[in-house]
Amino acid sequence: MSDWKSWANEPATEPGVYRWRLPAQDSAGVSVRPEWSAEAVMRWAGHSKSLQPSFGHWDGYRMCVPDGLEWRELRPEEGGVDTVWVGSQIPACPFCGGEPSVVSRQRVAGGTVVGAIPPRHNTFQMHCKCGIKQSTWFDTFGAMLRAWAHRAHPHRAADPRA
Ligand SMILES: [Zn+2]
Prior knowledge:
By secondary structure, the chain is mainly beta. The protein has one domain. 6% of the residues lie in helices and 36% in strands. Strands 1, 2, 3, 4, 5, 8 and 9 form a 7-stranded antiparallel beta sheet that branches. A two-stranded antiparallel sheet has the order 6-7. Strands 10-13 form a two-stranded antiparallel ribbon. β6 (57-58) and β7 (63-64) form a beta hairpin. The longest helix is centred in the last third of the chain and has 9 residues, at 141-149. The N and C termini lie far apart (43 Å). The structure holds zinc ion. Zinc ion binds at residues 93, 95-96, 98, 128, 130, 132.
């Protein structure tokens, strides 16, 4: 049973940290959906205060959140803010056969944007619980996935040509 709820139809009512996700999207032929943790806070929106996700933005008229946004209660092990991309077709780790996870961020000149929502992420890397991770960051999810699927250079030192 899924405990996800639509933010548009059934928003949270108490401030706090929740788990968020967006509809699945296609990346290099694999269907993946981002999940992440972020706060919902009381904010002025026009003339009244309402509970809004911290990553929502005010467009001068109303609060905007990504289309299809869903939320659920946070589980104890999900306190971190790292985004996880969930997809059953992500190839298993070539070393341990385990399920790898994808770490992603929004990188800008001078650093990383804290709290950036997954649609704005522009750097991706595959990690596995066994300690294997890709040696470089990729600009797109698809490029990362292709390199992982081809086991291009999962654990060697950084490729000087990269
Ligand atoms: Zn592994």
